[in-house]
Amino acid sequence: MFDSPEYPTKAIKITQKYPEELQGLCPLCKCPVEFEYNTAEKKIYQLTGPIIERRHLVTCTNDDCKLYSVPFNPSPRFDYSHRSYGKDVLAKIGDYYISETYNPRQIHAILKREYALPISESTVARMCNDILVLTSFHIDENTAKIIKEQNFLLIALDGQEPDGDRPALWNFTDLISGRVLITKYLDQVDHLVLHKCVEELKDIYEKPIIGFVSDKQGAIRKCFEVFYPDIPHQYCTFHFSTNLWNHLEKFANNIHQKIQKTVKSLYIHTVSTKTQISLPGEADSVSLKKLLKPIDKEMLGLLRKKNEKFQQLKGIEAFERMTNYLEGFKGFIKKIPVDDRISKIMKKTAIKLELVLEETKKDYNCATEGFKMFQEVHKLLWKDESDSEIKIKQLNNVFNKMWIRSQEIHSNFSRTDCKSFLPKSDTPYWMILAEWTRLWSSYKPGLFKYYTFPIGIKSNVEMEQKFSTENRRFRSQSGRAHIGQMIETRGEFVLRLQYSSLSDLNFEKIIANSETHLTALRAHLQALVTASSKRWTFSEGSTMCYIQLLQRIYGLRVTEMME
Question: pLDDT tens, 317-369?
Fold first, then answer.
């Protein structure tokens, strides 16, 4: 094991004189400058050791210049933001925090181990915040340059609901460049609020919008129908497929639950560990549960298959596996002596399994049929087709078959009776088919607007994936399951990282330009933290939350409860 390095105790003294390349002239007006005074010595901790910096300050001699009587020195600083640590320390923290996604505690441990740097964990945490807001600001600057070279915007939008009573984080991105345009924390969202966001976005980038992509939320759809009726609005194909899938998945899960409930109620699973059985040729009795455990474990193992979105339903898998297993199980029973106790247990086991398979056979046949229909729809939705009309015609044929099949099962139901409902395990199969046809009618007007776009964007699922990546990052760095406060205070910055490229993460360049904007960026972050903390104090187990509860139950005034 290598020994940790020792941080140098002796500091190197450095005097920052006026840059020689300026030849004693003001950088603004090119007039001569004159020496004003020396700054006090300042100790700065760098990765390689401490330095003591002193700077020569000058003023411009031209009384019309902005730098007249303003002491300055344009030489690059060793520290950042006039703090006690060098820019190299902040750049290293940026590499660990942004690129490697380490948390402040881990970064602090690395700095102590690798460099023996005298720094506290709280200081590292503050520097992590600085590098986060600086990097986010730098990404926005690069985004502005990229969008400037484009002729138009293709906008995707979606909101992220954090846990608790917190504002939603809304993200507006450009699908052409793949960049975040703006982010907004919104307490309440309707079509008017979203309209203001889009108008603000248009004012910032001054580019025409050629299309929108969304998951067809009511407020989004109304916003575009009312304010932007001439701009194509693409409904997310993935969300449409998911809405179809969720109904079938719930229906098939009911098959799995019934079979699993039966297996767990079998005597071989519930028998007491104290129950003993005598075996031929053995003097001592053995535990019946231990003896039957391999069979019990094998049956439960047949049910461990999970749903795979759009690919596999565990209800169908459980039925087919248990049916095949039962055939072999019956052959096993025939080899056991008829009057044997084990034979009786096995026969009762087989009877119960046969009963549950017979009970779920009809649902299995329906789920299998529905799964084939879904696969046909899913394949057509994602199939490359040069003509949208051809694709719509093909899908119309499939959904018409669904409606006919629904009418064969339950004819006393018309299309006007179709109403939206949430997926439930006890929904009849015919009603699922009817709901699928209703969903098709609802989504069809916006599912193929992507044919008018310069790129074939059918879905905004990537936006949800970015939200998920952001969530995983927060959970990894905080070690907590509830990350609502982190989303509320740092979500907008981390989202920009998800849409950035390697060229955006030049930390030396980011830090070099930090002096002008860092104070304002810190204030913005602090405002988010302050607002979040007030909300947390009120809503998560505080006295005020308790008072609010009593007020709701007993109708008391706050002043009465405080007395």
Answer: 999 999 999 999 888 888 887 777 888 898 999 999 999 999 999 999 999 99
Q: What is the DSSP string of 523-563?
A: HHHHHHHHHHHHHHHHHSS-HHHHHHHHHHHH---HHHHH-
What is the structure's pLDDT at 553? 54
The contacts found for 439-443 with CB under 8 angstroms, 24 or more apart, are 439/240, 439/243, 439/244, 440/395, 440/399, 443/216, 443/235, 443/240
- Type of residue found at 527: A
Higher pLDDT, 5 or 348: 348
Whether the Cβ atoms of residue 42 and residue 99 lie closer than 8 Å to each other: no
Query: How many other β-carbons are positioned within 10 Å of the β-carbon of residue 367?
Result: 24
What DSSP string describes 411-444? -S--GGG-------TT--HHHHHHHHHHHHHHHG
Question: 56: which strand partners?
Answer: 38
Q: Token pair for residue 390?
A: 């051809």
User: d(Cα 302, Cα 430) in Å, to the nearest integer?
Assistant: 29
The one-letter code for the residue type at 71 is P
- The predicted model gives 282-298 an average pLDDT of 86
The closest alpha carbon to 467, from 440, 499, 437, belongs to: 499
User: In a 3-state reduction of DSSP, which class is residue 210?
Assistant: strand
pLDDT at 1 over 50: no
* Distance from C-alpha of 293 to C-alpha of 134, rounded to nearest angstrom: 60
- Would the pTM of this model clear 0.90, i.e. be above it? no
